[in-house]
């Protein structure tokens, strides 16, 4: 419980500090005061004034409250939701594949979503307004995952090795399609594609949160319900079947949820690497392999990591914003090398 309490405390502190950080700096106390003020106004408007909290001083700057609610809060909320979705997706993938190197990109969803976004950038599609890129990225990400899954089925079953190899091939094909689209685009479109592929939460609005949040929240909750069956699957497929687990259905459900969460994350923020690989490993070392603890801890840890990475992306270089995917890669890359060396020292490599 201490781990979960520390994660919740870290997430709350990060969200408050991140919301107050920017060209217009707002002290944490004023950020909390703004939250309390809006909460009190909401519950009183709903006729539940007994839920009101003691009033606290809000932002002193005349534009402080508007900045928080129009710019900062949508961004920090989406960072937490996407981080949670990517991390729990990684934990589920590792459980389903029985391999600690598995991550959501294995099933091709990241490259597929990237193709959709690049199509919108290069050909200028706009029939869904500002949500066109999100819709295209989500659709192509899910379709790519479906292609990987159907191509891996044989005799009504799928094999882990076949899924992984098919995912590698589809990712390579996706990379080629993206390269072709970069070639077809003009200079401005190429810059857009490159920056989008590195990941960013810049320009996030409440409309983006409203579109993405239901998928991310429901998908994360559904992943938590898989914990018991993933623990049984860790005993081996044959033993899991004897204990009543429909392994094929579990695998289908897990891949569908991972595709959903990752496609929404990539569609809203671009490609953000290593969150689904690093976070589950950290908490597997702390809490052990049991998914009943690992999955919620990974969700909270992913929210903390992406919130911290977003804060770093906005503050490391004055008056500029670094790509958030670059920050997570700088953290995840060295961790990945350390993980490989650790495994080699303990068991001579992955079994």
Task: Draw up the topology in text.
Elements lengths: L1 H19 L7 H18 L18 H34 L11 H15 L8 H21 E2 L2 E2 L1 H25 L2 H11 L8 H19 L2 H7 L3 H6 L4 H23 L5 H13 L3 H25 L8 H24 L4
Antiparallel strand pairs: 1-2
Summarize the structure.
The protein is mainly α and about 350 residues long. It has 14 helices and 2 strands, in the order H-H-H-H-H-E-E-H-H-H-H-H-H-H-H-H. It has helices at about 1-20, 30-45, 65-95, 110-125, 130-150, 160-185, 185-195, 205-225, 225-235, 235-240, 245-270, 275-285, 290-315, 325-345; strands at about 155, 155-160.
Q: SSE order in H/E notation?
A: HHHHHEEHHHHHHHHH
Radius of gyration: 21 Å
Number of strands: 2
Envelope shape: globular
Mean pLDDT: 86
Major sheet: arrangement of strands: 1-2
- Biggest sheet statistics: 2 strands, antiparallel
Structural class: mainly alpha
Distance between the termini: 32 Å
């Amino acid at each position: 419980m201490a781990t979960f309490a520390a994660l919740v405390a870290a997430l709350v502190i990060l969200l408050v500090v991140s919301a107050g950080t920017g060209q217009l700096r707002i002290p944490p106390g004023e950020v909390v005061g703004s939250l309390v003020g809006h909460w009190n106004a909401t519950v009183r408007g709903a006729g539940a004034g007994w839920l009101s909290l003691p009033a606290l001083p809000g932002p002193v700057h005349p534009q402080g409250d508007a900045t928080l609610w129009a710019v900062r809060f949508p961004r920090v909320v989406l960072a937490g939701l996407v981080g949670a979705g990517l991390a729990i997706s990684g934990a589920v993938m590792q459980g389903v594949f029985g391999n600690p190197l598995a991550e959501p990109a294995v099933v091709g969803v990241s490259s597929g979503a990237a193709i959709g976004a690049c199509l919108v950038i290069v050909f200028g599609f706009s029939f869904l307004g500002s949500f066109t890129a999100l819709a295209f990225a989500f659709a192509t990400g899910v379709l790519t995952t479906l292609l990987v899954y159907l191509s891996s089925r044989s005799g009504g079953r799928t094999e882990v090795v076949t899924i992984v190899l098919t995912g590698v091939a589809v990712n390579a094909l996706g990379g080629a399609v993206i390269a072709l689209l970069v070639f077809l685009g003009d200079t401005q479109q190429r810059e857009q594609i490159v920056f989008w592929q590195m990941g960013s939460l810049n320009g996030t609005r409440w409309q983006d949160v409203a579109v993405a949040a239901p998928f991310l929240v429901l998908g994360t909750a559904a992943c938590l319900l898989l914990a018991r069956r993933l623990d049984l699957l860790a005993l081996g497929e044959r033993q899991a079947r004897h204990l009543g687990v429909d392994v094929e259905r579990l695998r289908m459900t897990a891949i569908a949820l991972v595709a959903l969460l990752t496609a929404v994350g990539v569609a809203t923020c671009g490609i953000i690497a290593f969150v689904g690989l690093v976070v589950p490993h950290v908490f597997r070392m702390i809490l052990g392999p049991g998914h009943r603890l690992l999955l919620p801890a990974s969700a909270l840890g992913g929210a903390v990591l992406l919130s911290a990475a977003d804060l770093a992306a906005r503050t490391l270089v004055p008056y500029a914003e670094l790509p958030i995917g670059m920050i997570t890669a700088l953290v995840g890359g060295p961790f990945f090398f350390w993980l490989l060396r650790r495994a080699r020292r303990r068991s001579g490599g992955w079994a």
